[in-house]
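Schema walkthrough. Field components (list of strings):
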Amino acid sequence: MIHASGITKTFGRTAALRGIDLRVQSGEVLALLGANGAGKTTLLRLLATLEKPSAGCLTIAGLDVLREPQRVRAMVGLVGHHNYLHSDLTASEELLFYGRLYGVEDARRRAAGLLEEVGLGNRSALRVGALSRGQQQRLGIARALVHDPPLLLLDEPDTGLDAEGLQLLEQLIDGASRAGRTVIFSSHDREWASRHSARTVILAAGSIRHK
Amino acid sequence: MGRQIGALLWKDLIVELRRREQVLSLAVFSLLVLLIFNFAFDLRRTDLAAAGPGILWVTFVFTAVLSLNRAFSVEQDRGTWEGLLLAPIDRGAIYLAKLAANLAFTLVVEVIAIAAFTTFFDLPSNVLQLIAAVLAGTLGFATVGTLFAAMAANTRAREVLLPILLLPVSVPVIIGSVKATAVAFEGVDASTGQYPWLGLVLAFDAIFLAVSFAVFEYVVED
Amino acid sequence: MLAASAQLDSDRRAVSPGSAVESRSNAILGWATAVLMAASLYAVFVYAPIERTQGLPQKIFYFHVPLAWDAYLAFLCTLIGSIGYLRTSQRRWDALAQSAAEIGVVFTSLVLISGSIWGKTIWGAWWAWDARLTSTLVMWFIYVAYLMLRSALGRTVRAARHAAVLGIVGFIDVPIVHMSVTWWRTLHPQPTVANPAGPTLPGSMLLAFFVCLVTFTVLFVFLLRERMAVERLRDDVDELGSMLLAGAA
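Field assembly_structure (string):
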C-alpha cells in the first residue's frame, strides 16, 4: 500500500525526517511512536500530501505523491491536530460540504449515516461551535471518513476525545483491517498503541528505530 | 470540478450569512469613506460630475482591498485551509470559488455604496451603463486580487502587502472603470463614450482571469 | 530554504568550482563596460551636435532611452527566470528572476529621475503625468512590490514561487498598463519626452545613440552576472550553514 524509500523532509535548516524507509501492507494497522519533535506529525502530513518530501520516493497504492497528488488525496483521510471544522456550519452541513468536495455519491445520505455512526445523529442540526470538544473530535473523525478512504491517518487521535469517542476510535481502528482499510496512527501512549496495532514503529529525531 | 466549486462557494456564503461580519462592516466602511470625501472636497453640483466617478471608485478600491484581505486569512486563522488542501480539489477550482465569493460580497457592498452615493450627492445617471462599469471593474480587481490575497496571506504584513501588490497591477482597471463610470454619469452616448473603456476593462478581466487561474496552484502548493 | 532545496540541482555544483573562471570573464566584461562608457560619454558630449530647440538638456535622451531599454530587458529576464523556475524548480532560474528584477528597479528609477529632469527643462515642472513616465512609474511600483514580496517571505522556496508568479503577472500587465495610460492621456494631450530632435534623427545623433544603447546593454549583462554571482555565494553560505548544523546535530 505504502512504499517509502529514503524520505527526507527539511524545513529551512532543520531536517524533520531523515532517510525514512517504510513499507506498509494494505489493511495493516501501524502505530507511530516517538517523543515530541521526532517527526511523527511530519510523516503523517507527507502521507496526506500536505507536505512534499524534500528527497526520496513515496508511493501510495502505486501512485507517486509528487506526480499524482490529487488521486492520492482521494484515497487518504487525515485526522490531524486541527479538526478542519467550520464553527458556523451545522454538523450535517459540515459533512455535506466535505462529501461534495470529495465527490461522494449521495453526500446527504452519507453524511446522515456517518453522523449516526459517530454518535452525533441527534446533534446533526447543531452548529459545530456549539458542540463539545469531544463531539467536535468525533465529527472530525467522521469528516476524515466521508469518502471512505482506503488509508486513514490519525495524528494523536486519543487526545481530546471523550469516553464515548475513545470507544468509537478503538472500534474504528480495530475494525479497520476487517474492512480492508489501512490505518496509521501516532500516539504517546505506548501501551494503548500496541494494544490496537499490529506493528509499531518508533521515530527518533527523524529516523526510524524499528520495533 | 463544478460541483466542488459550488460546494466551496456555498460554504463561504453560508458562513458569511451566519457571521455577517464581512458584508456589514464593509458596508459601513464604504459609507464612511463617502462621508469623508464629502468633507474632503466640499462638492458643489457642477464639480460632482467630474469628481463623482473617482470618488466612487476610490471607495470601491478600498473596500475591495479590505474584502480580499479576508478571503484567505479567515480560512488560515481558523485552520480550515488545510482541510481544503487535503481534498482532491483542483487548486484552480479553489481560486474560482474564492473569486466568486469575494465578487458576491463586494458587489453587495457596492450596491449599498451606490445607493448612498446617489442619496448623498443626487447625481442622475444611466443605470445600465453604471451597472456595466461597476461589474466589469469589480471583476477586474477580484481576478488578480484573489491571487494576490492568497500570496499576501502567507506573510506577516498581509494587510499592507496586498494593496502594494494589487494597486499597481490593477491600474488599467482603475483607469477604465473610472472613465466608463464617468460616461454613465454624464449621459454621454455609449457607442463612443463607454465601449472602449469597458472593452479595456473586460479585456483585462479575461486575460487575468485566465492567467490567475493557471498560476494559482503555484501560490498554494508548498 | 532555497539552497537546501536545490540539493538536487546538479548544475549548481558545476558552477561553484568554475567560479574563478566566471569571475574572470565578468571582470573582462566590466572593463569592456568601462571602455564603452567612456566612448559613450565622448559620443554624447563631444561628437553629437547640440540640438537646436532643446539645447543641452536634450542629451539626457541618450541615457534616458537606453536606461528604459535596459529596464524592459531586465523585466523580460525576470519573466524568463520566473517561467523557468515554475517549470523546473531549479534555483538558477529563480536567481535570474531575482537579480534581474533588482537591476530592473534600479534602472526604472533612473528612467524616472532622468525623465523628470528632462521634463523640468521642457515643462518647467518636475512631473507632469506624461503618458510614458506615468506608465513607467506604475511599472516601478509593480516591481517594487515584487521586491517587497520577496523580502516579506525571506529566502524560502515559497518566496521564489510567489515571486515567480508575480514576475509573470507583472510582465503581462506592463503593456496593458502602458496602453491604458496612453489612452487616458490622449484625451488631454500633453507634451511628451518622446521627441528627441524632431521627426528624424540626424546621422551623428543616431550613431551616438547606438553607442549608448550598446554600452548600456553590456552594462546590464555585466551587472546581471555580478548580481547572480552574489546570489550563488549566498546559496553557498546557506548550504554550508545547514551542513554545519546537520553535522553538529
